[in-house]
Design brief:
Largest sheet: 8 strands, mixed
CATH architecture of the largest domain: Sandwich
Distance between the termini: 81 Å
CATH topology of the largest domain: Immunoglobulin-like
Radius of gyration: 32 Å
Oligomer: single chain
Structural class: alpha+beta
Low-confidence stretches: 1-5, 18-39
Length: 661
């Protein structure tokens, strides 16, 4: 017999199940409401933190209270961790919600943004905690001993090495996360934060690496001897300018133990044998010996610095541990950061605004006997150097240290300040930072134009230079380059003829109004082959040797196997001279992108130290039927047959583009 179900019983069962389901649903909703509330509270707390950071940094970093900054970092890190914990279930889903209208891109980017925020705040906290007490000591609140500010900073950075290394790991993780983020689709406020991050994250990374390097540089592990080369870019040489003077500085534990400043002409001891000079120096300046003042012949600063160390050792019997080179612009900015200075023998305070003009006035021979002038013509710069060191010994306070650090970093980026250390580990860190002035490795195309004034004058203070570089990729298997180097001498009030001779005019300005003898070198990638050129003959009566030159461009193998095209040229006042080079590039300047219908090209243009914003025009001719698909930086013009970039070489320039059919 079939058993029939009881309708009343079934009804009660459904009611019970429904009731249980409603209870469970209400429980879920209640829990979800609590979770949503906690998530909202965490988000609001984080937003308040961001508002505090924005207000704190609105006026720049100099006036920030360190303790307040650390407190904000701590609170932000805690709130970020809280938000990450509360949003855990959503973070795994968020990257798949980019399709949601309006807010989708922000939601999809949330996990990456959260990761960046956590890593940056952890880095800041980790680095700041051991260094904040140093600021108190520098301000005089906790300095029981008589240590100088440099000694205090050196010891603190040495002790903080583990924390700085840990902070650097966090920064590198933040940068890796940033590289995965497409900020172009974010809402304006979030995109603004990411753009600010792009400005400051590289500075934080370099600051941490600099903090790791500085104790070694300042002799934390034992005494260090450095040569500080004062280079004059008005008489341009490969690494920034003629070596006018040199200071030998001994430092240990941040304490400046000894400083000896010399005129570069006084370094050499001709009772010892000296090596032969580079051949162009012998040919065009009739130099039989390679002396210290000409040691910076190579544009690769580690090579030039080692030559300076070797030649200094011959003349002075001291082997240095490193070389620091700086030009007039770097001197101006560094003096501006630590000044005003009271310089012995000068009533007026010396600042960044007047230091170079004062040096030029002090250099002028005037009416004094030549021998007397020769002995004292560089006394002013020695006095400025001593006054600067005295200021550093006495202390410039935390804000002064920030100004000095910022000025030094800017000079390093512009290549107005170069550093070479013989210690291999320290040298590797300098190379990684790009502060060693080395010729850079480039996987694609490479260009560096190097001017060397061989005319015994200061005309680079007025001569103008510009570059036009055209790359023909019509046949990607046989790329060609055409370079036009233009030199313009704007001075018109001069007395001909041009005579290359080592003489000194009554004023510095007159030294800038003479003719320009320039040994010009073009550094191209290894394997580049010169096929045509337009040089400029120089008559014998205009040369120290009395022998004319044909203007022929020669090819030599340069540092790192690079092809180097070189020639001598003469630019008279009021004249513009164009020198043209045409050469075949190696096929490796064009690279595969992984897309069979697309190819790429990259170019690195390295700035010569001592030069100022040289205008650079780059034109890229693409294969017939090809179109530009990507470019960094964006081009100035995109024509039917070529892509045009207009840049200024305040620092190195890089171009990477892709093209396809």
């Amino acid at each position: 017999m079939t058993r029939r179900s009881d309708p009343t019983r079934r009804s009660r069962t459904r009611i019970a199940a429904t009731a249980i389901g409603l209870v469970l649903l209400l429980a879920v909703l209640a829990a979800g409401g609590v979770w949503a509330y906690r998530l909202g509270q965490a988000a609001l707390a984080l937003r308040a933190d961001l508002d505090r950071i924005e207000a704190l940094t609105a006026g720049g970093v100099e006036g920030i209270d360190p303790d307040e900054a650390l407190a904000v970092l701590h609170d932000t890190r805690v709130d970020l961790e809280r938000l990450a914990a509360e949003a855990g279930p959503l973070l795994s889903v968020a990257p798949h919600l980019g399709w949601v209208p309006v807010v989708g891109p922000d939601v999809a980017a949330a996990p990456t943004l959260l990761e960046i925020g956590l890593e940056v705040t952890r880095a800041g906290e980790t680095a700041a905690e051991p260094l904040l007490p140093v600021l108190d000591r520098l301000q005089g609140e906790d300095r029981p001993d008589e240590s100088s500010p440099l000694e205090t900073v050196t010891q603190a950075l040495k002790e903080a090495q583990p924390q700085l290394e840990a902070a650097l790991v966090h920064v590198e993780a933040a940068q890796a996360a940033r590289d995965r983020l497409d900020a172009s689709r974010l809402n304006p406020r979030v995109r603004g934060w990411v753009e600010r991050l792009d400005r400051y994250l590289p500075l934080l990374e370099k600051g941490l690496k600099g903090g790791l390097l500085l104790p070694r540089l300042l002799g934390a592990d034992g005494p260090r001897v450095y040569l500080v080369l004062v280079q004059n870019e008005d008489e341009l040489r490969a690494t920034g300018g003629f070596i006018s003077g040199v200071a030998r500085v001994t430092v240990e534990g941040g304490d400046l133990r000894g400083v000896v400043f010399q005129d570069s002409y006084a370094v050499d001891d001709l009772s010892h044998p000296y090596p032969d000079p580079p051949e162009p120096l012998r040919e065009y300046m009739l130099t039989d010996l390679w002396l210290f003042r000409d040691s910076n012949w190579s544009p690769d600063f580690p090579t030039a610095a080692q030559a300076a160390i070797d030649l200094y050792a011959i003349g002075q019997g001291v082997v240095a541990d490193g070389v620091i080179a700086l030009d007039q612009r770097a001197i101006r900015d560094l003096v501006d950061a630590v000044g005003p200075l009271q310089v012995v023998g000068y009533a007026e305070p010396i600042t960044g605004q007047n230091v170079i003009q004062a040096a030029r006035q002090a250099w002028a021979p005037g009416d004094q006997p030549l021998e007397e002038w020769w002995r004292h013509r560089k006394d002013f710069m020695a006095a400025v150097f001593e006054a600067t060191l005295d200021r550093l010994r006495g202390g410039i306070g935390p804000e002064g240290l920030i100004r000095l650090g910022r000025a030094a970093m800017a000079a390093l980026e512009r290549r107005d300040l170069l550093i070479y250390l013989a210690d291999e580990e320290a040298a590797a860190l300098l190379a990684e930072l790009g502060w060693d002035g080395a010729l850079r490795d480039a996987p694609g195309d490479f260009l560096m134009v190097v001017d060397t004034n061989v005319g015994f004058n200061k005309v680079n203070g007025v001569v103008e230079e510009s570059l036009e570089y055209t790359v023909d990729l019509t046949d990607p298997a046989q790329p060609r380059a055409t370079l036009v180097v233009r030199h313009r001498h704007p001075v018109t009030n001069w007395t001909p003829p041009c005579r290359q001779e080592p003489r000194y005019d009554p004023t510095y300005e007159q030294m800038m109004q003479r003719c320009y003898w320039n040994y010009l070198r073009v550094y191209a990638p290894p394997g580049a082959v010169l096929v045509a050129s337009e040089g400029h003959p120089v008559p014998g009566e205009a040369l120290l040797s009395g022998q004319p030159t044909s203007g022929e461009v020669t090819t030599v193998e340069g540092e790192g196997g690079r092809s180097v095209f070189a020639t001598l040229l003469l630019v008279q006042p009021g004249e513009t001279v164009e020198t043209r080079f045409e050469y075949l590039l190696p096929p490796t300047v064009v690279f595969a992108t992984g897309n069979p219908d697309e190819m790429g090209y990259s170019l690195l243009v390295q700035k010569q130290p001592g030069t100022r914003g040289v205008p650079l025009s780059v034109r890229i001719r693409l294969p017939t039927g090809s179109a530009l698909t990507a470019s960094d930086p964006p081009p100035a013009e995109v024509g039917e047959v070529e892509i045009v970039y207009r840049l200024r070489l305040e620092t190195d320039a890089e171009i990477t583009l892709r093209f396809g059919r």
